[in-house]
């Protein structure tokens, strides 16, 4: 009599190497939390102090930009082990992909989407890259970056279209986060991560840099240090560095998972034929 052997092993099953990540544990949780807290404080307390005219729009925007530049590298903490912890390479790369698509997805939906909706009617009328009038202080979170890369605050259809696609992609990223967290549709989540972040790198940040080089940096304002290095270069760099890494990591995990599934199926067939 033939025995029935399960041919499919779910992610997260003890027999599977995949879906075993436990993000934000121990020191990694502290490091992630510190980065997210820094971003949230600037988006709430910092914004509020500027809006109430307790802090000036500039140079407060410069300090916010520097903080954001540092905090957005938070996915690299995925490779830090807690004392005595032993994680596989799969667990580390899963956590890296998970944390980066979470961070990027929140940026696209929470920052890019409002920018896309507000740009034409509300942001383009703001003229100064030096300061904001009291009636314009509501726009400080967008002006913070747009005062350095002025394409954000001016008529620039290509930039507007690119950011529209980023905002839409953010919803796909957050869907992939949900899938990975709940260990459902694991391969679909990895495909979303790979495709969106290759698009971010190849068709967005690369275009942002190359286009401005062709234009002889005419859209860069707010000085050579903060405007160029922090805002234009720095706040796009994560998607130029982490996104292609995320793409190849997701593809590596995807191939590994497919290989594991194939192995289990072949093993099951071999046992059924005994």
Task: State the main characteristics.
single chain, 274 residues, mainly alpha, 68% helix, elongated, disordered N terminus
Question: Can you walk me through this structure?
Answer:
Helices cover 68% and strands 0% of the residues. With 274 residues, the chain is an all-alpha fold. The chain is elongated and about 80 Å long. The chain starts with 26 loop residues before the first helix and ends with a helix.
Average residue pLDDT: 91
String of helices and strands: HHHHHHH
Report the principal-axis shape.
elongated
The radius of gyration over CA amounts to: 22 Å
Estimated helix fraction:
55-70%
- Given as residue ranges, the uncertain stretches (5+ residues, pLDDT < 50) are 1-5
Q: What's the N-to-C terminus distance?
A: 9 Å
Strand content: under 5%
Judged by helices, strands and strand pairing, the structural class is mainly alpha
Total E-strand runs: 0
Number of helices: 7
Write the layout of secondary structure elements.
Blueprint lengths: L26 H25 L5 H15 L17 H35 L16 H7 L10 H26 L3 H29 L8 H50 L2
Helix pairs in contact: 1-2, 2-4, 2-7, 3-5, 3-7, 5-6, 6-7
């Amino acid at each position: 009599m033939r025995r029935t052997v399960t041919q499919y092993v779910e992610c997260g099953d003890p027999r599977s190497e995949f879906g075993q990540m436990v993000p934000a544990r121990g020191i990694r949780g502290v490091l992630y939390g510190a980065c997210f807290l820094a971003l949230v404080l600037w988006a709430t307390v910092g914004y509020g102090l500027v809006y109430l005219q307790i802090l000036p729009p500039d140079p407060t925007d410069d300090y916010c930009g520097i903080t954001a530049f540092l905090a957005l590298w938070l996915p690299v903490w995925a490779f830090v082990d807690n004392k005595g912890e032993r994680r596989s390479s799969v667990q580390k790369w899963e956590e890296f992909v998970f944390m980066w698509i979470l961070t990027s997805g929140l940026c696209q939906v929470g920052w890019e989407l409002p920018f896309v909706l507000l740009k034409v009617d509300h942001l383009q009328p703001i003229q100064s890259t030096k300061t904001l009038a009291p009636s314009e202080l509501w726009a400080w979170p967008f002006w913070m970056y747009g005062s350095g890369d002025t394409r954000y605050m001016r008529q620039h259809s290509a930039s507007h279209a690119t950011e529209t696609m980023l905002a839409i992609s953010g919803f796909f990223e957050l869907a992939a986060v949900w899938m990975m967290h709940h260990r459902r549709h694991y391969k679909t989540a990895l495909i979303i991560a790979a495709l969106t972040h290759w698009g971010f790198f190849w068709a967005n940040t690369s275009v942002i840099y190359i286009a401005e080089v062709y234009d002889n940096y005419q859209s860069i304002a707010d000085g050579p240090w903060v405007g160029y290095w922090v805002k234009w270069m720095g706040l796009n760099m994560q998607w130029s560095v982490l996104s292609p890494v995320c793409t190849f990591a997701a593809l590596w995990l995807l191939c590994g998972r497919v290989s594991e599934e194939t192995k289990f199926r072949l093993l099951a067939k071999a046992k059924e034929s005994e």
